[in-house]
Amino acid sequence: MEALPVAALWGVSVVAQKYSLSSVKPATAFIIITLLHTLFLLGYLAYNWKSFHEDVGNVSNRLSVVLLAGVFASFIGNIMYYRILQANSAPIVSSVISTVPVFVALFAFALLGTQLTAKQILGVSIVIIGINLLR
């Protein structure tokens, strides 16, 4: 599966973040990692400037508000994540955080009217049961 290397990279990231939290506060780790993300993002932007510049006009006002809400939610989520990771086991925190698809399915159903299939409902149920087994 194509996404497996991404999952592996994110797994390395969680372990590295947990390791760093043994000597720094969550806010410090969050700020440093965000600054590094920003530096890499600026390099990526410079490399892809032409494509970005051609496409940026396609961002509508409505989409801008949605993206801002997503960034805001992500910002708060990341602050909370580092605090939770410092206080808990990395495998358990990572497993619980990995329930994002469950919330996506539920929010898409409630807010966007996306229909959930019986298999998706079963999958969501199994994930919820599995997370409860971690406690």
Provide an overview of this structure.
The protein has 135 residues and is mainly alpha-helical. The protein has two domains: 4-89, no CATH class; 99-135, no CATH class. It has helices spanning 4-20, 26-47, 49-55, 61-87, 90-97, 100-112, 118-134. The chain is globular. The mean pLDDT is 88.
General form: globular
In total, the number of domains comes to 2
Runs in which pLDDT lies below 50 for 5 or more consecutive residues are none
Report the count of strand segments. 0
User: What level of helicity do the residues show?
Assistant: over 70%
What characteristics describe this protein?
mainly alpha, 2 domains, single chain, 135 residues
Write the SSE topology.
Blueprint (H helix, E strand, L loop, with lengths): L3 H17 L5 H22 L1 H7 L5 H27 L2 H8 L2 H13 L5 H17 L1
Q: Could you give a quick summary of the protein structure above?
A:
With 135 residues, the protein is mainly α. Helix content is 82%, strand content 0%.
